Amino acid sequence: MDAMPYKTKAARILDILLIAGFFCLVFVLSLRRLSDYDLWGHLKAGEYLFKTGSILTTHYFNCSWPEFPYLNHEWLFQAITYRLYVSGGEISLVSLQLLLLMLSFFILYKTARLYSDNIPVIVFVLALGVLASSHRFVLRPQHFSYVFLLINLFSLHQYSRGRTQYLYILPVVMLLWVNIHAESTWGLVVPFIFLVIEAVRVYLTKEFISKAPSPSPSRGEGYKVSPPLRGGDEGEGDLCDFTNDRISKKEDTAGLKKLTIVFILIAAASLINPFTYKTVIWPLLVMSEQFAGVEELLAPTELRYLPFWIYFGIFVIAVIFSFRRIKIHFLFIALFFSVIAWIANRGIPHFVFASAPVIVAGLSGISSLATRRHKLSSSLVEDRTAQDIKSKEGFRIQPSQPLRRSMPGRNDKINYLLRLLLLSLIAAAIFFIVTDRRYLRKFDNVPYPEGAVKFIKDKEIKGNMFNLHGWGGYLVWELYPSVKVYIDNRFFHRKFFAEYEKILSGEMEWQELLNKYKINIVLLNYSPSDAVNLRDHLFRSSDWRLAYWDDYSLLYLKNEAGFKDINDEYSMRIVNPDTYRFRPYGLERTILMSASEEVRKNIENAENSWTARFMLGNIMYSLGDAGGASSNFKDAIRLSPDQSPAIYFNLGQAYMAAGRLADAEESFKEVIKLEPVAEAYQALRRVYLLQGKNKEAEVIFKKHLREK
Q1: Nearest CA-CA partner of 602 in 639, 566, 629, 638
Q2: What are the structural domains of the chain?
Q3: Rounded distance between C-alpha atoms, residue 633 and residue 652, angstroms
Q4: If you write DSSP's letter for every residue of 553-578 in order, what string do you get?
Q5: Residue 116 pairs with which residues in a beta bridge?
């Protein structure tokens, strides 16, 4: 551990605040509503386990391939989360999420403290790591993997410091891990990498000692010389010295034997699960069948991964400039997980856990080197004796008198300022997170078809459903057994997705495929592009009706006897929300009147849909009812989770038509604030001219030219 210089009381207080601020940051980022698409399927599988007494091993809930095998490597996670959810609801699972993430970063903090007492460096590295990996903080089986991986790493760090007793917990950890998540593979890979490098280190150490020259006879038999301190300060160099931390060959050999035995026990424990060796190799099997486009498997190349880019850059810098301080075992493990992280963004937290102690050791080395140079150029130590001055380099120096520190100097003030800056940045990040209007919204702002599900339950709709893949688990949890979905989040095979994509894109055989699985319900999101797809075919087909729609989902029912009453009362026949949500203009008045009635009927079931209010406002505006249009636009603004410039622009148009120029002026100003487009500048200039504000109109015109 790096020996830190004497700390003043103010520095110690700031360090405590930094640690508290870091864990507050972890807390607020971990405090998120349940939103992971996979979670709901896990809850249903847990329910199946407790009701039937057996682990789910097929795609039992689906109407497409109910007998297809399912390697349920997460069965214990399903059991835990189901019992918690049944007993305590969402709050119990959010509490579990908080516990696992807080525990993970506590273990990481304790690991980093093995190598440095430099609290600002530790907090800086770990806080950046938290920001880099926070996109993976919503509850899933991987959270247990975080804890288990960190226990593995912490135990190996302790082993490298001569504390082998920590190894014996690892087989027990594996026994739990392999029944909770298939990332238990890392519980084999990490110790294996460490074991191989340690074996090489022990071998090289033996060779080095065997070839070392005998002690000089002039020194006398048994005369021992203390080795030079690594780095110059007592306690430094805990991650350095690639070849030898323990000089004794006997200790090295005994430690390696223990490590080998523990690894064998870990490997044996990994087979104690319902699927034996298949669980261990499952990640390799699934990657060979993995389909493209799964968000968590995409490389972190988008700008939202900027904290990860910065963190990785600091890792590279720390390795380059403090290479000799870094133990090669953990460098190789960190490099391994860096490759995983760059291949798939779900691996970013693992890289943070493996690399943070390496970065801390490297940066602390740079910091302590700068501190030592400062000591040499300042007068902080008084009354050194001649014996101190004449001591040779490399031997421990025992001052004849206690070191006395002078008043805080320039370097101390810089350290205070750096601590305050870091603390301010953490406080600002926490403030930004908790004051965001989207913080702690239901489903953590992930779009779920909650309204459509309520409609299906209220109208007692039953049958087989073709659905969006991501919604599958949620629909299984909410609607099974009255509704059986086509696909859910457990499907990983290309051949299934080839058929899924064929139906979704509306290729020629889409009707035959829907009929093949007796599908009479279709639930989808809005089209991601203007290309013709299944949604267009369903709306135009006489065999299908759009019975419900809201801000996120479109529910189509087959035009059959069982759904006749629902279709007759609620179906949309005139305006397709998927393609004409915002502009149903150019239609005849009688058609617009019918369209407005259809939208009003839908609002009875989708009363919180801002999209429906916006469409109704557009229709009312086209009918010449400016007052009705403005009322619906204001409702749309109230219901919309985000500020939409399109709603404000149309509201301004409605105010202008009603002669409410002052209100129109405010609406167009809001549009410019949200999105300074040419149409908004032109509309605001026109409003100014209508009010006789020629000077303001000239100013806004010039501003528009500058923006343009």
Answers
A1: 566
A2: 10-210+231-283+312-377+410-433 (no CATH), 447-571 (no CATH), 583-708 (1.25.40.10)
A3: 10
A4: -EEEEESSGGGHHHHHHH-B-S--TT
A5: 2
Token readout for 259 is: 């490590």
**Which tokens is 341 given?**
């992280």
CB-based burial label for 427 (10 Å; 0-12, 13-18, 19+): middle
pLDDT tens-digit map of 267-311: 999 999 999 999 988 877 776 665 555 788 889 999 999 999 999
Rg of the chain's alpha carbons, rounded to an integer?
33
Q: Which two tokens stand for residue 463?
A: 């049958």
Contacting residues for 471 by C-beta, under 8 A, at least 6 apart: 37, 448, 449, 523
Q: In the block, which residue shows the tokens 């993995």? A: 290
Q: Which residues, other chains included, contact 568 with Cβ-Cβ below 8 Å and sequence gap of 6+?
A: none
Per DSSP, the residues of 363-377 read HHHHHHHHHHHHHHT
Assess contact for 325 and 231: CB atoms under 8 A: yes
DSSP one-letter code for 486: S
To the nearest 10°, the Cα dihedral for 299, 305, 311, 314?
80
HEC string of 28-96 equals HHHCCCCCCHHHHHHHHHHHHHHHHCCCCCECCCECCCCCCECCCCCHHHHHHHHHHHHHHHHHHHHHH
Which pair of structure tokens corresponds to residue 84? Answer: 């918690």
> Using CA atoms in the order 380, 384, 389, 392, what is the torsion angle rounded to 10 degrees?
-80
Contact 63, 105 (CB under 8 A): no
**In the block, residue with structure tokens 């003043």:** 8
| Overall size of the chain counted in residues | 708
Q: Tell me the longest C-alpha to C-alpha distance in the chain.
A: 114
- How many Cβ atoms are within 10 Å of 686's Cβ, its own excluded? 16
Bridge partner residues of 572 (DSSP): 546
Residues 6+ apart with CB under 8 A from 157: 111, 114, 330, 357
Sequence-distant (≥ 6) Cβ neighbours of residue 693 within 8 angstroms: none
- Among candidate residues 16, 22, 29, 18, the one with its CA nearest the CA of residue 444: 29
Cα–Cα distance measured from residue 571 to residue 599, given in angstroms and rounded to the nearest whole number: 9
Nearest CA-CA partner of 239 in 361, 149, 350: 361
Distance CA 337, CA 311 (A): 14
CA pair distance 85, 651, nearest whole angstrom:
43
b/e map 93-123, b = 16+ CB within 10 Å: bbebbbebbeebbebbbebbebbbbbbbbbb
Q: Residue 385: its pLDDT value, please?
A: 44
- Number of neighbouring beta carbons within 10 Å of residue 41: 23
The H or E element that residue 506 is part of is: none
pLDDT of residue 240: 45
Contact 150, 352 (CB under 8 A): no
How do residues 357-410 score in pLDDT, each as one tens digit? 999 998 887 766 555 555 555 544 444 444 444 444 444 444 444 444 445 556
- 644: helix, coil or strand? coil
Put the strands of the sheet holding 544-549 in their side by side order.
Answer: 483-485, 463-467, 519-524, 554-558, 544-549
Q: From 521, 577, 576, select the one nearest 550 (Cα to Cα).
A: 577
Type of residue found at 693: K
Helices within 212-305 (DSSP H only)? 249-269, 277-289
Distance CA 552, CA 641 (A): 12
Strand 544-549 versus strand 554-558 pairing type: antiparallel
Output the six-digit token pair for 153: 């790493």
Residues (pLDDT < 70) of the chain are 1-6, 208-250, 287-293, 367-411, 491-492, 581-587, 708
- pLDDT score, position 415: 84
